[in-house]
Amino acid sequence: MTATDAPSIANTAPDTPARSDAATTPALSISGVSHSYGARRALIDIDFTVPPASFTALLGLNGAGKSTLFSLVTRLFGIQSGRIGIFGHDIGREPGEALRLLGVVFQPRTLDLDLSVMQNLLYHAALHGIGRRDARQRADQVLTQIGLADRAGSKVRDLSGGQMRRLEIARALLHRPRLLLLDEATVGLDVKARADILSHVRQLVADEGIGVLWATHLFDEIMPGDNLVILHQGRVLARGEVAQVLGEAGAQDVNTAFMRLTGARSEGSAP
Amino acid sequence: MSSTTLHNRPSGFSLAEYATCLNGIVWREALRFLHQRERFVSALVRPLVWLFIFAAGFRQVLGISIIPPYETYILYEVYIAPGLMAMIQLFNGMQSSLSMVYDREMGNMRTLLVSPLPRWYLLFCKLLAGTAVSLLQVYAFLLIAWFWDITPPPLGYLTVLPALILSGLMLGALGMLISSGIKQLENFAGVMNFVIFPMFFASSALYPLWRVQEGSPMLYYLCQWNPFTHAVELIRFALYGQVNWISLAVVGGCTAVFMIGAIFAYDPSRGLARRGPAGGET
Q: Distance between CA atoms of A155 and A172, rounded to whole angstroms?
């Protein structure tokens, strides 16, 4: 399924944000964030923003610090220094308000394999305080949108890898967040499943005005109109629109720009 | 900017949202329990083996004098029934902690921890859910034990409920605290050796403390300091419609301490943050 023929969630959303406010406040703002595991520094003075209704790719090698950054934004880890805001809500001081506006797809699968598709969605809804009747309506809606309406009663362990990822995205959207984080969401999927998921997420940006931070090490997932943040050994080496980053690196494509900035050697993906 | 202008809803969470969250966590725990029928059976088989085999064998060896709350001589099976009820809760608490370690390794735990509701509340809900499951197991045990002539006063089945809830919370909180310190599932075997067995055997679950004191004064003091002893005694007295105030205070206090410790350990700025991302993540 592609996202283009999918019904819009936001069209029926009662808690759609006031667009004028959303347009002036970054969906995600990260300023001066550093993080260490003992003596090892995983992130060093990270600064960037994700505007609302934009697709921002966070590109980095394995070990660059992407997952650590995601753990900080989602408050799995506490912030050691710096500040993270979600639509102006400080994640340290107002975690409830910040997390309400955030949907997350983590790198490892976080679905409960022994529960059904619907049960997983209802559990997530309950964790956001969404009542059972409303949750069922929303679940039906997102399942239709991702093409899994006929699998609502299936055990999650019976789904394919691509279906599980789509379900995780649907789950992340169930509480109608305004910012969506996806950590290497297409890893391990076949080409078609990857393309479907990427297209679906881009459609969410266009149709729903959701801000997306897409962590990846795959160059071909980045489009010319995207924002790009290159993370390497815990530091931001470049940030801005793709064209701007290419210009600064004096490169024709993201692959070359990445290699020039990091000194890495790769073909098609960050090694 | 306030969240009211951004999201067209007031800040904070309503009571209904808290209740929905609690309901969802308990519902999920119950579903998982129902899907794991082996877990239910094994949770029952363990105390029943002690009751049918161990107690039957030791009935003639271990005499029980009249001690509160009993008002007459009792069979050894009757004496150890409260200890076995507490044992069910002890194993259930550790099973919950095992499940939390597993969830954390598999990533499921993140679903819970990124909920916008306060983390202490999420952990408390998880604790209540585990306690609710342990209550099902204990009452199933009591039902079977009834056919084995372990028949407390009818009202005892009701009066023991608050004691079971409190002891379930204490043992669940202990399991939660332990789970926060376990980095890998493989390390969990140590919990069996260093927590479950010492707690169970160094308590009044299998033999009254005056008998322990006759054998080893040092072990007697150890048993007295063991919170599990007080969980057993709290249940024993409550089953006969009485309150053991010292045990109530100890179990209540330990519940609070273990719970605060678990919340502290799962605080993002402390416990979990030190470990770094899960394997394979960067």
A: 19
